[in-house]
């Protein structure tokens, strides 16, 4: 490679990296519902569109919807009660609650913009208040804009990687993180959603201590060989229980 060409590649690579950092600074905004400063590079309308587009495919990965309309209606009822009694009702998101047919996988999750899912494997172990805790936690992910934040982080690192690839002429550098990572929540996201879930439970008349029982169910499901916290994207259930207790005391003390 000629020396001049090498200098041009370095300059372009540095320019791309600089652009990524400038864009990241310009994307900072305060979440009006949590007060947290976040890096977001999409509108709420785009979040809703992503959720609506992704929901059918995600549901199919868990066997589709559970075929009992009565139970589907019950999940809707609990979810809508949480929305109508909390700050969630003031958000632009389109909350929609789904009971999935999967009877083996204990899981619940939310997509950007409002779709919330719980598998029958988890649902079947919950009473109404515990279901409210699970759905409230997932509503917290939507309000916290956690998926949008992960997407912005992914786009930032993709741009940084592209700049490094141009500057180093290394085509093997990974410049894509992947869809699973985009929609994976971090430990702080989980803790924030736990606290929001507690708040929504209290506002809706549910016993927030039932959230602790949910953590115990998840802990039992993970078994004795669960991944240590430092290797996991989720906080350890025991640590989450302590934080939930603190949140309950703090929120009740503010009322």
TrEMBL record:
Entries under InterPro entries matching the protein: Mito/Outer_Membr_Metalloprot (IPR051156), Peptidase_M48 (IPR001915)
GO biological process: proteolysis involved in protein catabolic process
Cellular compartments per GO CC: membrane
Cofactor note: Binds 1 zinc ion per subunit.
A GO molecular function held by the record: metal ion binding
Peptidase M48 domain: residues covered: 72-247
Keywords: Hydrolase, Metal-binding, Metalloprotease, Protease, Zinc
Cofactor: Zn(2+)
Family, as annotated: Belongs to the peptidase M48 family.
Official protein name in the record: Peptidase family M48
Organism placement in taxonomy: Bacteria, Pseudomonadati, Bacteroidota, Flavobacteriia, Flavobacteriales
